[in-house]
What does this fold into?
Amino acid sequence: MKPKTKIQKVVCGFADTLPKLTNDQFEYACSKFFEKMCYRTKNTAFCLECGSDIDVNKIHRNKVECTKCNSTLKVTTTKKRSYDSPFFYFAIADLISNDQYDFQVVRIFEFRKYHKKGIEANVYGSEVCQNWYNVDGKRVINSCLITSFGNFQGDIEIRTESYWKSYEVSPDLYCKTSKFRPEYKRLGIDHNLKHLTLIPLVNKIRCCTKTETLIKAGYCGAVNKCTDNNLNKFWPTLKICLRNQYKIKDSSMYIDYLNLLEYFKKDLRNSKFVCPKNLKKEHDLLMNKKRKILQKAEQEREKVRSEARRVKIEKNQIEYTRNKGVFFGVAFSKNDIEIKVLESVQEFKEEGDIHNHCVFTNEYYNKEDSLVLSAKVKSKPVETVEISLSKMKIIQSRGLGNEASKHNKEIVSLVKKNLHIIKQRYSQLQKTV
It folds into this structure.
């Protein structure tokens, strides 16, 4: 939108005078964001930087030198012929002021790299967002429009923030020449910040001295990944790391590792455990150990559930035999169709599993007025038939997915012709009752 207030007009005036990215800044960002790669198959390979072919015999330990662009490449085995990198955000912080306003501005640049065989890689880098912070706390957003997917589009202009649209972008990297206010520098904020937004971090530091300690020690990843609860819970552990000058390369994995140590009741104040030389190896070791424990516990629970199901089935079988035993042995056939009464609860389960319907889960074997039969064609189950004993008629005949099969009419006709057999058995049951 067009600038309306005085401060917005001043910001737009300053924005027009901001310098573009220099070649050194552009190259610095690219060197940090993009890894130089080579794609190979069994017999061929090519450089993703210049697109030229590479002799596979020159590849050694997944590394190779491209003779055309003189790049050292990391080799990946794949059949892909192109690769588009994810988006990266490069930030430049600067101080701009006049007689009335003193701004801390954070400029965000979006970077992405496109690779394709036979074509030189194309790097896209452009400014997408500017956050202007005045000393009195007022903030002006001069940015491209951010979409609901988190992407930027359109031109840079004055924007307003909403619940659904936040323009506080977390940069992946700050430029080395970034300038910050002296009060921010005293809090440990400098160009080494990663994945943290400036003013929310300042507010967090002012509320939590532990955050300030971690920022000054270079533990930006820990600040980013740690919730307030985790920070308080693992604070003694993090102090051990600071004392031993331990570098946390993957903060997310490290927090998971500490949770695993806590699960196995290890000493979280012992540098032997909390400062592993190979974090991934130790993390995976404990993770696999915990997975086996959980699997064993699940197997035990499944055994208990299976035993409970078995006892229930046996109990239901006794009840089913007492109520419907008089019908056991009833069967009739015509050509390839065979129909018989289900004689056990287990048969109900098998019928339900085969046809994926609810004859077992809804406990049709407990229905007093229902008799359930299984229809087979060439010894293959095709439908389950339910008969009402009081009305002596077919309630339903369903096959796979609770749908009628192509043999439905023949099955229904055969059952109707033999209902007198079921009626005779039912009469016997009524007399015994």
